[in-house]
Structures are given as structure tokens and as C-alpha cells.
Amino acid sequence: MTRIGIIGSQGRMGQALQDAIADAGHEYAGGADQGDDPRELSSKADLLVDFSAPGALEANLAAAREAGIPIVIGTTGLEDTHHALIGDAASDIAVLQTGNTSLGVTLLAHLVEQAASKLGPDWDIEIVEMHHRMKVDAPSGTALLLGEAAAKGRSIDLSANSERGRDGHTGKRAEGAIGFAALRGGTVAGDHSVIFAGSEERITLTHNAENRMIFARGAVKAGAWLIGRRAGRYTMTDVLGL
Ligand SMILES: NC(=O)C1=CN([C@@H]2O[C@H](COP(=O)(O)OP(=O)(O)OC[C@H]3O[C@@H](n4cnc5c(N)ncnc54)[C@H](OP(=O)(O)O)[C@@H]3O)[C@@H](O)[C@H]2O)C=CC1
Ligand SMILES: O=C(O)C1=N[C@H](C(=O)O)C[C@H](O)C1
Question: Would you kindly state where each structural domain of the chain is located, as residue ranges?
């Protein structure tokens, strides 16, 4: 039985994770929230699962590292500096970071990469996401993950080829750009569509999350898979064998 500690335990995902831990027959080791020291939690857990906020990441990685235990990071809104911290921690412990822990989105990313590779640069790619009114970051971590998959399929760099937040007289679409649009409202758990727009035809690949349990189950599965792995940075593709 694995003892799993949750960072952000009082949040929407934290609550879903507690259910998923119980459903999978693991032990809930406790939570660390705003103002808590994550080292207290890591000292009594076999694994940390972090769905909190980017500002908490550095201390969470340090706590996992000090205890020598793996960590799953589901928090989104991460910047390059956060990714550098994750890369550094992965030299000591097993770390899995992803914008989406669901099976459906992991598979969708593969389909997007394939489609982007087969269709070529004259098909414009737009990524549209919708989330609940409480979400604080945009575009979503999943939209960025899907953008990375499309960019990989096209062998281009996403950061140099993104169009985000169009407003006003934007000029025409940049050639080869990957566009992002973020909608917010209601209680939507997470909808993502990747649109390939060609001349006189369109292909749309869509994933709809009906609730947060798909993310929570995926995170618990990923965590159990990480236990006993050598230090390194892993993905949901590794966990699901896709
Ligand atoms: N990878 C994936 O599959 C998924 C990722 N997410 C991501 O997970 C994160 C959390 O989402 P959600 O549960 O909806 O958000 P919530 O706001 O409901 O929960 C976040 C929790 O983290 C707490 N928190 C904030 N700062 C810290 C800190 N420094 N240390 C410890 N705890 C802290 C918050 O406390 P307080 O309210 O007091 O600030 C809150 O309890 C988001 O980044 C979201 O995008 C969500 C779903 C799936
Ligand atoms: O904040 C959320 O709710 C979600 N966040 C993740 C993201 O940013 O992609 C995953 C999921 O879509 C729900």
C-alpha cells in the first residue's frame, strides 16, 4: 500500500484525489496547503502529488528531494524557470509533470502529433479550450501540451510559432502559426479541441472531460507507476505505454 501525500489537498483536485486514492486502495498520508511546510508531509509519505499553484513548486520539489521520494506535478501555469527546477530535481528523484493526467488527452496528443505531421504546414492549427470560471491560468496546461504535440509533428518550435490572445487589428494569421483561444465560464471540467483548417475542409479533434475524477485517477496511477523508478523526468506516455 502506497502512502500518498497531496499538495493542494483542500482544492477541487485535492478533493478528487482523496477519492481516487481510496478507490485505488492506497493510503492517504495527509495534505499540505497554503502556509504548511511540505517537508512535514514528505517525511510520512512514499509519494507526493502536487495540484496546487506554481509558487509552491520550488518548496515541493525540495521536500520530495530531501525525503528521496517521487513526485507527480499536475499544477499548470508553469514558466520556463519552473521547468528548469523540475529538470534539476529529476537528477535526484523520479518526477512526472504534465498538464493533463487523463488517458484521453494523452492519446489525443499522439493523434495531434500524427495529424500535424501528415497534414503539413498549409493546414492552419488552432487550439480552443474551455474551463470553469475559477480557473486562473490561460491557455490551459493541456492546450500548451497539445500545442507542443502539434509543433513536434511539424518539427517547429512552439514558442516561436504561437499566436495567443488575438484582439484588435491583429493583421493576418502568421504562416505556420499555432493559435490558442481560451474560454472561461460555468463549471466546465475541461474541453479541448484542436482544429486543422485547410482549404475548403477542416478536421477537429476534441476531448471533453466530464469530471475531475479522470485527472485524479490518472495522477494516482502515474504516482504508483513512479514508485521504485530511477531518477528522471517521466511523462504520461511512459505510464500508459502509448
Ligand atoms: N494536470 C492535470 O491533469 C490537471 C491539472 N490541474 C491543475 O491543478 C491545479 C489546481 O487546480 P484546482 O484543484 O482546480 O485548483 P484549486 O484552486 O481548487 O486548488 C488549489 C489548492 O492549492 C492550494 N495552494 C495554493 N497555493 C499553495 C501553496 N503555496 N502550497 C500549498 N497549497 C497551495 C490552494 O489553497 P488556497 O485556496 O488557500 O489558495 C488550493 O487549496 C491548477 O494549476 C490546475 O490547472 C487541474 C486539473 C487537472
Ligand atoms: O484548472 C483546471 O480545472 C484544469 N487544468 C488543467 C489544464 O490547465 O489543462 C487540466 C484540465 O483541463 C483541468
Answer: 3-101+212-240, 103-208
Residue 34: partners with Cβ closer than 8 Å, 6 or more residues away: none
Domain 3-101+212-240 in CATH 3.20.20.70? The answer is: no
Q: Which residue has its alpha carbon closest to ligand 2 atom 2?
A: 135
The answer, yes or no, to whether any atom of ligand 1 lies below 6 A from the CB of 63, is no
Q: Does 26 qualify as catalytic in the annotation?
A: no
Any catalytic annotation for residue 135? yes
Asked if domains 3-101+212-240 and 103-208 share a fold, the reply is no
Architecture in CATH for domain 103-208: 2-Layer Sandwich (3.30)
- Band of residue 165 on the pLDDT scale cut at 50, 70, 90: confident
Q: Tell me the ipTM for this assembly.
A: 0.99
What is the best residue among 135, 188, 210, 217 to mutate for testing ligand 2's pocket, by most ligand atoms within 8 Å of CB? 135
Give me the amino acid identity at 218.
Answer: G
pTM over 0.95: yes
Does 56 contact ligand 1 (Cβ within 6 A)? Answer: yes
For every residue of 49-79, which 3-state class applies, written as one string?
A: EECCCHHHHHHHHHHHHHHCCCEEECCCCCC
Measured in angstroms, how far is the CA atom of residue 4 from the centroid of ligand 1? Answer: 17
To the nearest 10°, the Cα dihedral for 33, 34, 35, 37? Answer: 40
Mean pLDDT computed over 159-163: 97
pLDDT tens-digit series, residues 19-53: 999 999 999 999 999 999 999 999 999 999 999 99
